[in-house]
Amino acid sequence: MLQIANTFIDTVQGAKTQFVKTFVSNEAVAKPLNTYIDAQTSFAKKVAAEANSFFTTVGMAVYSFDAKKAFAK
Predict the structure, then answer these.
(1) pLDDT band at 40, cuts 50/70/90?
(2) How confident is the model at residue 69 (pLDDT cuts 50, 70, 90)?
(3) Which of 9, 12, 4 is nearest to 45 (CA)?
(4) Buried b vs exposed e over 30-46: b needs ≥16 C-beta within 10 Å?
(5) Domain count, the chain
């Protein structure tokens, strides 16, 4: 699942980078834009990794939950 998220992130961020390459001819403007896009990419991938870890942990907890044992009197 994380692979799919990273692929999606790379696709969107690659489109932004290509937009800057195509339409921003001033290097003084393009450089900070590309730095910003790289920071967004890093942040988005970290968020995706943490969300994946969280939901995997929750899923395993739900999967291994024993209701009979938990609610036994």
Answers:
(1) very high
(2) confident
(3) 9
(4) eeebeeebeeebeebbe
(5) 1
Contacts of 17 (CB under 8 A, 6+ apart): 34, 37
* Tens of pLDDT, residues 11-32: 999 999 999 999 999 999 999 9
Separation between Cα atoms, residue 67 and residue 73, nearest integer Å: 12
Domain hosting residue 28, numbered range: 2-61
Residue labelled with tokens 């999606």: 8
pTM: 0.82
Any domain includes 38: yes
Q: Averaged over 28-46, what is the pLDDT?
A: 98
User: Is residue 22 in a domain?
Assistant: yes
